[in-house]
Amino acid sequence: MPTTTPLATRPVVKRRSALPALILGIILGLLVALVAVPAAVRHVGASMRSRISLAFLGRHDTIDISQPTVIASIQRLARLESVVYTMDKVVEGDRTNQYLPDILTGDKLLLIVHGQAVAGVDLSNIKAGNVQIDGRSVTIAMPAAELLSVSLDNSKTRVYSRTTGLLVPTDPNLESEVREKAEAGLRQSALDSGILNTAEGNARATLTTLLHSLGFQQITFR
């Protein structure tokens, strides 16, 4: 009797479509481009930024570098405090009598002083005559650096010692005079250290950064 041998069964393999993976890859690529293109644009020059913006975003990258805009941007810096000079020292003040010894008529005070002098440039009064623009070049007539404030820190300034003679009362004005002397010394020490030159250099560096951000390529100070 003839017999029939059943054919070997093979597992049926279902092929998955590559379309979903392709769509997912396209979406991820677009997301990466949206993140990478603006980041790259920030690190290139103005002209290249404009080309990239036009190519990828379909628009021109325009920057307003008119004189009123530049003046307003500089004026917003106002009193640009660029250097702080600090001083810690002991300042002495006294009252003496040319005929009697200090133990009888003297009055001596030692003051521990902590203070600071702040230097910078006042840009709030920049006028049109201070700014000359020629295309992507700008020339700035910057005001001179100056000491903007000189002050003692009362929380850290104190009387170290006070000695008064046996025959005289304590002079109530001596401490105030010593404080004034300390402020004058602080001011002179700051000037002697070259604080104004440092303040001018720092102010120029700040303005240079600002003007570059506005799109200028050549910046001159006079």
Describe this structure in words.
This protein is of the alpha+beta class and 222 residues long. It folds into two domains: 19-57; 67-221, no CATH class. 39% of the residues lie in helices and 27% in strands. It is built from six helices and seven strands, in the order H-H-H-E-H-E-E-E-E-E-H-H-E. It has helices at 19-41, 46-57, 67-75, 102-105, 174-192, 195-213; strands at 79-95, 107-122, 131-134, 137-140, 146-152, 158-164, 218-221. Strands 1, 2, 5 and 6 form a four-stranded antiparallel beta sheet that branches. Strands 3-4-7 form a three-stranded mixed beta sheet, with helices on one face. The longest helix has 23 residues, at 19-41. The N and C termini lie far apart (117 Å). Residues 1-14 and 37-62 have low confidence and may be disordered.
